[in-house]
Amino acid sequence: MYDDPIVRAIGSRHEIFDENDPLTQDFLSCISDLLEHKRVQKLKKYHQHCNTSRLQHCISVSYYSYLIARKIGADPRKAARAGLLHDLFLYDWRTKKTPQVHAFFHPKAAAENAKRVTELSDCEIDAILKHMWPLCWGLPAYRESVAVTLADKYAASIEVVYQWSMVCLRKLHLVRG
Ligand SMILES: [Fe+2]
Ligand SMILES: [Fe+2]
């Protein structure tokens, strides 16, 4: 459907475009309009953690936010959408000079960019602004915000662990590449 090699959240066995998987079909229905947006697609040009593209990271966070929201009684659609948009900043955070430390600045940049992509509820804005909690002012105010901040930490952790594992396996000649 999309001209993109990303097929699943990192760490998940479920393919997001599998038409026979009701879970991922429902997930995809929550975010498909956003995923097609050219500003969101630009995220694939940027690295996030190690070699993971920012688009892959955002899809992973969106998917895990959706799953967590279902478990904790939050709105899965809002959590998935906020998760996809939570890092919608279009610069290389390793080299770009920002007005504040990146960890504090980028949630505000992402929220402003997200408003240019779609209409956002207060809950979705809070989830984007607080996704770096506790590196922000105030607690996440909605269950959806809790889902996104947990999903972000989970996705970032498995991205780093996965990539370092592959480095070690290559050094031991246990995998090629
Ligand atoms: Fe972030
Ligand atoms: Fe993130």
Structure notes:
By secondary structure, the chain is mainly alpha-helical. It has a single domain (22-171), classed as Hypothetical protein af1432 (Orthogonal Bundle). Helix content is 56%, strand content 0%. It contains seven helices and no strands. The protein has helices at 22-35, 38-41, 54-72, 76-85, 102-117, 122-129, 143-171. Helix 1 packs across helix 4 (76-85). The longest helix is centred in the C-terminal third of the chain and has 29 residues, at 143-171. The model has no long low-confidence stretch (mean pLDDT 92). Bound molecules: fe (ii) ion (2 copies). The site of one fe (ii) ion has 5 residues, from helix 3.
In short:
The chain is an all-alpha fold and 177 residues long. Helix content is 56%, strand content 0%.
Helix content: 55-70%
Task: Please tell me what the overall shape is.
Answer: globular
* Number of helices, counting only DSSP H or I runs of 4 residues or more: 7
Cα end-to-end separation: 28 Å
Number of strands: 0
Small-molecule binders: fe (ii) ion
Assigned CATH architecture:
Orthogonal Bundle
Question: What is the number of domains?
Answer: 1
CATH topology: Hypothetical protein af1432
CATH homologous superfamily designation = Hypothetical protein af1432
Average of pLDDT: 92
The computed structural class is mainly alpha
How much of the sequence is in beta strands?
A: under 5%
Along the chain, the helix and strand elements come as HHHHHHH
Radius of gyration: 16 Å
Oligomer: single chain
